[in-house]
Design brief:
The protein has about 240 residues and is an alpha+beta fold. It folds into two domains: about 100 residues, no CATH class; about 120 residues, no CATH class. The protein is about 25% helix and about 30% strand. The chain is built from two helices and 18 strands. Strands 5, 6, 9, 13 and 16 form a five-stranded antiparallel sheet that branches. Strands 10-11-12 form a three-stranded antiparallel sheet, with no helix packed on it. A two-stranded antiparallel sheet has the order 1-2. A hairpin with a 5-residue loop joins strand 14 and strand 15. Helix 1 packs antiparallel against helix 2. The longest helix has about 40 residues. It is elongated and about 100 Å long. The chain starts with a helix and ends with a helix.
Amino acid sequence: MDTTGYIALTRQSGLLKELQAVANNIANISTTGFRREGVVFAEELQALDTEGGGISMASARVRFTDGAGGNRSQTGGALDLAIDGPGFFMVETPNGERLTRAGSFSSNGDGDLVTMTGHRVLDSGGAPIFIPPDVGTVGIAKDGTVSANGRLIAQIGVFEVEDPQLLTREDGVLFRSYADPLPAESSVVLQGFLEGSNVNAVAEMARLIEVQRAYELGQKLMDSEDERVRSSIRTLGRAP
């Protein structure tokens, strides 16, 4: 493969990754607490031996998460929670503690407060939250304090990260922080609400079409270049 082919191939590889990210965003338009993901393109320059020569290749190895909040919808569910602000809930997974914005919680058979996937929700001290089955109506204050029948039960942990770039997505709505999360100072808990996905359906569909067309143009370039090389080989092969 010559230089043109390598340049086109790196571009196609990056566009494919972006296409996958956009398709995943569209698939999660209705996922509670989902945050849009994007791809960062970088340019890599390499000098050639010829005077003034050089090549430029595209690289798309970095993904970023859009930190904008999604629209909140009122459900009235006692254990449906949303966060107003940049904070996250902390949950316990088999791989360790993870952060999430998806607040569709419930109580399991053991009385633990869990996510839809069964991960236990942690309190402000990092311990699981137990809700007795006979407590009646559960009230949750803006600071995460859980109470029932005038009795305090626990305080749901809400945490913030100083640098959102230190968050890595591990699942659709789970994030791993490479720095210790801090207790939230500018976030409040809203009971009876859920935060939806922050994906803009119209914008993502437009981007999907744009990336598809760019990929098709790149493929045509590679096909044209391949035919040029083949034609040159055939011509040279017939030369006396």
